[in-house]
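Section: Multi-chain targets

For targets with more than one molecule, the full set of components is provided together so that the structure can be written out for the assembly as a whole rather than chain by chain. Components appear in the order listed by the source. The example entry contains two components.
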Amino acid sequence: MTTLDPALREEILAAVPSLRAFAISLSGNIDRADDLVQETLLRALANIHSFQPGTNMPAWLFTILRNLFRSEYRKRRREVEDADGSYADTLKQHPEQTGHVEFKEFTAALSKLPEDQREALILIGASGFSYEEAAEICGCAVGTIKSRVNRARTRLAGLLHIESANDFGPDRTTRAVLSGDDVA
Amino acid sequence: MESRPNTLKKGKGQAALGRDIQAKIGQQLRSYYDTLLEPTPDRFADLLSKLDKQGKEGAE
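Its structure, encoded as tokens over all components, is:
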């Protein structure tokens, strides 16, 4: 093992807040997320020679963490059937965050997404990665990421009852009928 | 950090949701994520320092 280049150290530390938020989003559990981040940093330092300086440090760290989570998740799934229940622990563990109704609802909706869709949506919509970077992190095709993100958005829109402001759907018609606008 | 190519074009599958719905979800998603973002806990900086020190000693 060689000493860690201070510039690389800075790059790693700069990525930690987002890496941790990603870990919480994946696992739904703050303690597990912190363990995941710690394990990711251990692996990253042990393999720092395989990181090419100048390339994408956040993507490299996210890949490590995602793979760790996946192997752990597969193990846990064999033991624990209630994946939703463990995800919901986020709320129990962070009472100060449950004051926000929107946060609560969003977390609940997010927990209902399949794992693949949730991670794709977070990487693209929140962590700020490009579709190409997300595809690399998840080890799949760019088109796969795109379709997962689309399905995740559609599902979330349904779960959160988000409707288009320009929607000429039944609501508008119903209102018109109820208010008697077009009725003699 | 290198700049990210912003070459993404609206794909075929993207027509399912209106732009305003996508914007609302995007905004909620970012605010959810922002809630989770915290400055790097000291334990991680300490961990890196510790590992680095071990590495140095190991190299000598």
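The mean pLDDT of chain B is 73.
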